[in-house]
Design a protein that fits this description.
The protein has 244 residues and is mainly alpha-helical. Helices cover 63% and strands 0% of the residues. The protein has one domain: Methane Monooxygenase Hydroxylase, Chain G, domain 1 (Up-down Bundle).
Length: 244
């Protein structure tokens, strides 16, 4: 199949009938459409971020740091867009949401396999989240593979060792000597910074819409989200700052 087959339309290329037909509200309430679109969009962006992180891991393993920076910068930009999207969801009032919340049943963002895979690919590997995926499902398979594979942090630290830097503190103490590693580390901190911002905005949005109620699917809601605010994919890169 050629890259530009004759007769292909915009709708054909983007598979718009399938994409735009994937929003199937279970109620007749206006705001359920927004809820669906916001969360489907986040899953699409997560798919792209996983695509970029996979490339970045391969590039770091090949010591092609400059190309890895581009992929990681793209992830950071996507994270910014995802964080801003909480402001759109926050236009939904508590009353708006409460009217259709029952149709969600036991579904919950807590079950997002792609978000957990993103955490695993960065280096936040909590095997307990495998329990929330149906055994044998594509999500479960991908999540288990990500748990077993080297993370972005793993390959970055292997690169540090390969290049002869004793520690990440040493890299920061002599950035001119270790400039490639130094820049790589700062790109990783950018990801962590953006992820922390996303978590904080998620918490505020949940508190604004449902307060401290239990989340759907039995999750603890805002209290659980609050407990994640201190999570870091690259804690060593944060703690070394104290020693500089």
């Amino acid at each position: 199949m050629t890259a530009h087959p004759a007769g292909m339309t915009y709708a054909d290329y983007l598979q718009l009938p399938a994409l735009l037909g994937a929003q199937q509200p279970l109620s007749d309430l206006h705001d359920e459409m927004l809820f669906i679109v916001i969360h489907q969009t986040k899953e699409l962006w997560l798919k792209q971020m996983l695509h970029e992180v996979g490339l970045a891991i391969a590039l770091v393993e090949a010591d092609d740091f400059a190309a890895a920076y581009k992929a990681l910068a793209r992830v950071s930009r996507i994270q910014s867009v995802m964080t801003l999207s909480w402001d759109v969801l926050a236009t939904m009032t508590p009353v708006d949401y409460s009217r259709f919340r029952h149709v969600l049943g036991t579904s919950s963002g807590f079950q997002s396999a792609q978000f957990r895979e993103f955490e695993y690919r960065l280096g936040i590997k909590d095997p307990r989240f495998l329990e929330y995926q149906e055994g044998g499902s594509e999500g479960a398979v991908r999540l288990k593979a990500a748990l077993d594979a080297d993370s972005l942090w793993d390959v970055a630290d292997q690169a540090r060792q390969r290049h002869g830097a004793d520690s990440w503190l040493a890299v920061y103490q002599d950035p001119e000597r270790w400039f490639g590693l130094y820049q790589l580390a700062e790109k990783l901190v950018d990801l962590d910074d953006a992820l922390a911002g996303w978590r904080h905005k998620h918490l505020l949005t949940v508190e604004r819409i449902i307060g401290n109620k239990m989340g759907t699917g039995g999750s603890a809601g805002a209290s659980y989200l609050a407990s994640t605010l201190e999570k870091r994919a690259f804690p060593e890169l944060w703690s070394l700052r104290t020693g500089l």
